[in-house]
Design a protein that fits this description.
five-stranded antiparallel β-sheet, 5 strands, 142 residues, HIT family, subunit A, 3 helices
Length: 142
Amino acid sequence: MIEQEVTIFDRIIAGETPCHRVYEDDQVLAFLDIGPLSDGHTLLIPKERARYLHELSDPAAAALGRVLPRLCRAVLAVTGATAYNVIQNNGSAAHQAVFYVHFHIIPKFPNRGLGISWSAGSLDSARATELARKMRAEMGVG
């Protein structure tokens, strides 16, 4: 992994910066966001340092995937929300502000939570065939 500057998440993992811990094991840490978009807004981070999701090892990514659904269930149960967003940004153009992999679990309430707009395009069949073929080859899956 490429060297990166120390982030707030590194300091939280090291115990240098306090947080309201929700869950922790050897591979991941979940805690409440200090600038929540809604009540219960929670962050999930790997303990393996990486700026972007694609830089994580398979075991670190699997640990996130193992905990994320459980964490979402807990957020819903405790907040009473019936809807939520899970968001993970990679790169400043994608609105990443802290350059350390992290997932936001954001409960949605009337007038609180994540607000987004989605400008959908259309999928050209020939381009889709080409993209899918190249992605399969990149992943080594025929």
